[in-house]
From TrEMBL, chain A:
Origin superkingdom: Eukaryota
Alphabetical UniProt keywords: Cytoplasm, Disulfide bond, Redox-active center
Claim: Membrane is one of the keywords in the record: no
GO cellular component entries: cytosol
Chief localization: cytoplasm
Localization: Cytoplasm
Protein name in UniProt: Thioredoxin domain-containing protein 17
Keyword Cell cycle (UniProt): no
Gene assigned in the entry: Txd17
Pfam family, one: TXD17-like_Trx
GO molecular function, one term: protein-disulfide reductase [NAD(P)H] activity
UniProtKB/TrEMBL annotation, chain B:
List of residues binding FAD: 40, 104, 306
Stored PROSITE patterns: PYRIDINE_REDOX_1 (PS00076)
Single Gene Ontology MF annotation: flavin adenine dinucleotide binding
Name this protein carries in UniProt: Thioredoxin reductase 1, cytoplasmic
GO cellular component terms, A-Z: cytosol; mitochondrion
Organism ancestry: Eukaryota, Metazoa, Chordata, Craniata, Vertebrata
Active site: 444
UniProt record, GO biological process: cell redox homeostasis; cellular response to oxidative stress; glutathione metabolic process
Cofactor(s) listed: FAD
InterPro entries on file: FAD/NAD-bd_sf, FAD/NAD-binding_dom, FAD/NAD-linked_Rdtase_dimer_sf, GSHR/TRXR-like, Pyr_nuc-diS_OxRdtase, Pyr_nucl-diS_OxRdtase_dimer, Pyr_OxRdtase_I_AS, Thioredoxin/glutathione_Rdtase
Gene3D superfamilies hit by this protein: 3.30.390.30, FAD/NAD(P)-binding domain
Catalytic activity: [thioredoxin]-dithiol + NADP(+) = [thioredoxin]-disulfide + NADPH + H(+); H2O2 + NADPH + H(+) = NADP(+) + 2 H2O
Amino acid sequence: MGWEEKQVRGYPEFVQTAQRYHGRPIFALFCGDKDAEGRSWCPDCVTAEPVVRKELHNMPEESVFIYCLVGDRAYWKDPNNEFRKNLKLTGVPTLLKYGTPQKLVEEECFKAELVRMLFTED
Amino acid sequence: QEAAKYEKKVMVLDFVTPTPLGNSWGLGGTCVNVGCIPKKLMHQAALLGQALQDSRKFGWQFAEGVKHDWMTMTESVQNYIGSLNWGYRVALREKKVTYENAYGEFVGPHTIKATNKRGVEKLYTAERFLIATGERPRYLGIPGDKEYCISSDDLFSLPYCPGKTLVVGASYVALECAGFLAGLGLDVTVMVRSILLRGFDQDMANKIGEYMEEHGIRFIREFVPIKVEQIEEGTPGRLKVTAKSTKGNEIIEGEYNTVLVAIGRDACTRKIGLDKVGVKINEKTGKIPVNDEEQTNVPYIYAIGDILQDKLELTPVAIQAGRLLVKRLYAGGTSKCDYVNVPTTVFTPLEYGACGYSEEAAVEKFGEENIEVYHSHFWPLEWTVPSRDNNKCYAKIICNIRDNERVIGFHVLGPSAGEVTQGFAAAIKCGLTKEQLDSTIGIHPVCAEV
């Protein structure tokens, strides 16, 4: 079956989607919103996305990859936003394995080796 | 990681042989997974319980009935440990250290065989080897021990509340675990064969025991278990423990939900092929003797940590020894690890911090007439309002009269003993004398001013 991708925006949509796939390995990449031309306000996210996408085939069978846009820069900078409060995210981009303490933050996401390790660790 | 800094090609082989009950864990060794880290967190959980009780006297109002949920605590602790395991994986990767989750054993000179959990074997050769395999809990060797008892390897991830618990042993592991289990509201009994905290200052050890007894932990002294049987299966089940006196023929029986064995730890050196490369070990204890540069009798094989003979079994000691060793090997360093005056803390309900000689060791080494002991009870200000014990906290220093009254032993029993002891350890390393201590003005109001 391989894996599938879901694209969501904002915290409630993220939670809903993650809950729907409970029981399957879920990986999520959180990035800043993209403008009309498709560019994110977060330069690190722009760098990380292609690196992560190249490694997606290493995810275990039945995995779900959730690509989540968190919001605009102002929303993200607010220390009380839901992603910071509930998911304990500290920066974007963040790539994590949902339901585990395994995650990669900011520059760690640029390294293909680390991304691969996250997808294949058990 | 230190060696990789100096551009050496490094590999780490880490493998956890599952406990008799099937438990295993991630990268990080004992301290991170089944030692210091979960222990301190659970000790903190127990302290918070006490703090909640005290808080009423300080004016906090809340409805009766503060209860503790084992699963919530254990999940949080395990989650934190998981993040540490992951952090180490990332750190090793970033520093280009190859990591294999495989069991390593020597098969010939400079050669090691690594077997992973699926049984796949690989051979590796290297210029140098560092053994840091640590220890695992010892079992009693009586009927029912491996089938029904748990050890510290199982306790911190136990998927159910242990309930009424019998702790067998009087090591710091035994007392710390008994301490926090009781602090969480469980019925705890400690079965002791002879003395408490062998190797520690006995005056302090007895005070710790007294405090625990006065706070609801039962001690059965001078008995050893001879049989453990299962009355009923369950999570937890019910176990019957039969014990015999060490001083006669008296037999007693008791029923418990859980039996925690904490009678000592054995070095993991017997099954790693040391004989194939000629590394000498102490046949009786399994420990490896090394010179003061952590080198075994085989020049290219080094060892650090709990497996060393006659050295302290503490995480920071192993870490320091490892770092300095690598600096000496690859960066022209000359410092050797200083094993003297290493501070330590026992996280029993009343914490005990120590650095240097115990009173007995000081008397033995310097002679009773040459040492002077200064001591004092104290009552932490924070304990006054809730009317907690006013004569339990205690501090003593041991001085060498012949050497300018130099402080050679520091012992404190009280809250945050670890934090207090750390600073004094640095002072002792600098050669603190009684006069200097006296002339240091105290911070008020804190326990440490004593």
